[in-house]
Amino acid sequence: MSATADLDPEDAKIVTLARGSRARTGAPEGAAVRDLDGRTYTAASVALPSLTLTALQAAVAAAVSSGATGLEAAAVVTEAAAVDPASLAAVADLTPTAAVLRADLRGTVVETLVAAAP
SS3 sequence, the chain? Predict the structure, then answer.
């Protein structure tokens, strides 16, 4: 049984993609977002001298730069105990009601948030 077995298949897909982005780069976080047309975008944390982005910020940027105007859902795979507020803000900029799944390194969803929670 996989860590994403109880999720909606589309949500399980973005968790798997986020996990893969993190593993492929060795970054602290991996993320994936699904836009309103069902397209997915993935990214890992970026830490350069002149640019720092959370994985979720980078995935949102990839979606926006490809023409996405809204998001259905997002997933971030991280060891952190919480999703960075800047990550949630990036998702909320497009769709305040989008679900954000926080998963551990095994891909088990440990928390589901709303991007712009009151």
Answer: CCCCCCCCHHHHHHHHHHHHHHHHHCCCEEEEEEECCCCEEEEECEEECCEEECHHHHHHHHHHHCCCCCEEEEEEEECCCCCCHHHHHHHHHHCCCCEEEEECCCCCEEEEEECCCC
**Beta strands 40-44 and 29-35, pairing class:** antiparallel
- The answer to whether residues 101 and 115 touch, using CB atoms and an 8 Å cutoff, is no
| Assessment of whether the complete model's pTM goes beyond 0.85 | yes
Q: Measured between alpha carbons, how far is 80 from 10 in angstroms, rounded to an integer?
A: 24
pLDDT tens, position by position, for the chain (118 residues)? 345 557 899 999 999 999 999 999 999 999 999 999 999 999 999 999 999 999 999 999 999 999 999 999 999 999 999 999 999 999 999 999 999 999 999 999 999 999 886 5
CB 98 within 8 A of CB 87: no
